[in-house]
Amino acid sequence: MKRTEQEQASLDNWPVVTADDIEMMNDEFSHYIFFRRRKDGSVEYYTSCCGRTEVIEPVRRTELPWENALLDASYHNQLHTCPWCNRNVTMKDLGKAGKRKSLNEYRLVVLLHGDDHALYADALSLHKEYAAVDDLTARPTYWLCSGYRFARGEVMQIDYQMWDAGAITWELGQLDREKKVQEPFKRGSLSFYTHDSYAVIGRDVLEDHPFFRYCQYFHLWQYRPGGARGYAHKFRDLISYLTAYSLYPRQIEMLVKAGLYQPVAELIGHRKKFVAAIDWEEPDIRKAMGLSKQELGQLIAIRPDFGALECRAYANQHLGTSWDVEDAATFWCMWGTDLRPMEVLRFCRRYQLPLGRLLRYLERVTGGDSYGAVRAEAFGIYRDYLEAAYHLGRCMEHSAVLWPENLFTAHDEATDQWAQIQLQEAETDRKVKRPRGAKERARKYEFELDGLLIKMPMSAAAIRLEGQKLHHCVGGYAKRHLEGVLTILFLRKVDTPHTPYVTIEMQGNQLRQIHGRNNDRDQVSPRVRHKGFLATWLRWLQAGSPRNEDGTPKLPKKRKGAVVA
Questions:
Q1: pTM for this one?
Q2: Is residue 517 a contact partner of residue 529, using CB atoms and an 8 Å limit?
Q3: What is the pLDDT of residues 183-238, one digit of tens each?
Q4: Span 355-375, average pLDDT
């Protein structure tokens, strides 16, 4: 494979694995002292920890205390301390240990080296076995999986798992949506995979490096909520963290020092930058987020979801608000988990609605119920009503149209009228229009379990008929379903597959809405009634909708505490 001059120069200067490195890697394994009793009464010892072979003669038993202690501990599976290196070991009698296959171990490590210009990380797969006598004191063997070179403004990865020559990948300047440099030790299929955790060897290299010594990975990052505790041994995100730090060093350092871990976690894990809330090209954290000194103090004290800061920026720019961080956090927490708060703000901007008036109206509609899901449900009904009223050509400046006295009655009337108009329009067009990507979407979503099934409608008429039968507004979603903007699904009972029962709106793998007759008024929500079925189906979607050879869903393993998202 042809290399550029920069790539070849980096490879030529790459540090080698030294004997000292191998000794440190040996400490990742369990330590043993193997022993064998000879016919003359002497005992022969082999140490896996420090690689020694020693023989203790029986006549020397009274000479040295450590020899006497070792002889006294020479029993199979006895715990002891190596007298030559002071490591904790397990004694193994070669006469009782058999072929010792059960002692074979594999370890994954990332080995760090550095110079004045760059930091190097080698991902190594280690193996150690004790089948032969020569193996008893041998150091681990290793296989180089991938290597990384980190420098200011650039990251280079060479992956030896693909070709012998190694495939090289770069991250330069800034992190894009596509994750180019990957964590090592990838396991799984091309579409669904994970990365195994690994030990880090050479932490002192990172902590002494002139550039990376301020990255805070071992000082603060591992102690974050949800992170490792204490002196952690295994990691999954060191490579991703160093990649982000190479390109945004000042920003990463200041965010982590301030305890604002979420934007860093989203950046290294999913390439999400919260661009409406933070400017990653600005090294000053306060200027990067457009906050005053007081507001920065609020942010550090409250530590809200950074989505709240995105809402703050949008509302202040487009809706004429003057929110501080606390106001934004309050608004973010107002809707529970059933609605994205940004949808409310965009809706207000689209129809030029005063946000405060909308919130007061929803409070009146819900009877002052502070539960987020109730407020989100009321907003969904109001949104469907207003969209139907808009398409019907009603005066959107009239107060009685914008804020009907009885929202539910007005919703049913407007959505029914709009569905009728759409149905008439569909009937005039005799062409049968199938949804975009119908075959792929049906294979992704259609599911059957425990007397229930989910199927995808193949025409706008079927969706509008569903809305008429169940008396809700799904008919207005038919066009977007056909265009692939969203997906409408029918939840039916297996014994009555043609009878409308429950309707579902999906956005990718996210369940946006689920309603039965009359939007579940005066009855238990299907989200609660079929909680177990929906949880299993959503886990199956998250797993990539696996199917058996006969096309039936391949069910995921049950998980304790699963909830419907």
A1: 0.72
A2: no
A3: 999 887 766 788 899 999 999 999 899 999 999 998 888 888 777 655 567 888 99
A4: 87
Strand, helix or coil for residue 389? helix
For residue 307, the SS3 value is helix
Write the CA distances from 252 to 172, 218, 298, 543, integer angstroms: 16, 13, 19, 32
Residue spans of alpha helices (H) in 366-473: 372-391, 399-402, 407-428, 438-445, 460-470
Is 208 exposed, middle or buried (CB count within 10 Å of its CB: 0-12, 13-18, 19+)? exposed
Alpha carbons within 13 A on the beta-carbon side of 345: 22
CA–CA gap between residue 329 and residue 379 (Å, rounded): 19
Beta carbons of 437 and 550 less than 8 angstroms apart: no
CA pair distance 113, 10, nearest whole angstrom: 13
State the Cα–Cα distance between residues 374 and 380, nearest whole angstrom: 10
Residues contacting 92, CB < 8 A, separation 6+: 32, 33, 34, 35, 76, 77, 100, 103
Count Cβ atoms below 10 Å from residue 389 Cβ, excluding itself: 24
SS (H, E, C) 481-497: HHHCCCEEEEEEECCEC
For residue 27, the one-letter residue type is: D
Residue 332 has pLDDT above 80, yes or no: yes
Using DSSP bridges, classify how beta strands 43-47 and 53-56 pair: parallel, antiparallel or unpaired: antiparallel
Q: Dihedral through CA 525, CA 526, CA 530, CA 536, nearest 10?
A: -120
The terminus-to-terminus CA distance of the chain in angstroms comes to 47
Q: Where are the beta strands (DSSP E) in 400-539?
A: 447-449, 452-455, 487-493, 502-507, 510-515
Pick from 377, 370, 364: which is nearest to 334 by CA? 370
The Cα–Cα gap between 273 and 176 comes to 9
CB atoms within 10 A of CB 367: 8
Rounded to whole angstroms, how far apart are CA atoms 498 and 135?
69
Q: Which two tokens mark 169?
A: 């990948």
pLDDT digits (tens, 9 = 90+) for 123-163: 999 999 999 999 999 999 999 999 999 999 999 999 886 55
Token pair 């569905």: residue: 419
Residue partners of 164: CB distance under 8 A and separation at least 6: none
Q: What's the number of CA atoms in the CB half-sphere (13 Å) around residue 401?
A: 16
Determine the Cα–Cα distance for residues 105 and 184; give it in Å rounded to an integer.
19
How many residues can be counted in the chain?
565
| β-pair type (79-81, 88-93) | antiparallel
Q: Which two tokens stand for residue 155?
A: 């990251």
